[in-house]
Amino acid sequence: VQLQASGGGLVQAGGSLRLSCAASGRTFSTYVMGWFRQAPGKEREFVAAIRRSGGSTFYADFVKGRFTISRDNAKNTVYLEMNSLKPEDTAVYSCAAALGSWDQIDYWGQGTQVTVSS
Question: Which of 65, 80, 90, 113 is deepest in the core (most CB within 10 A)?
Answer without folding.
Answer: 80
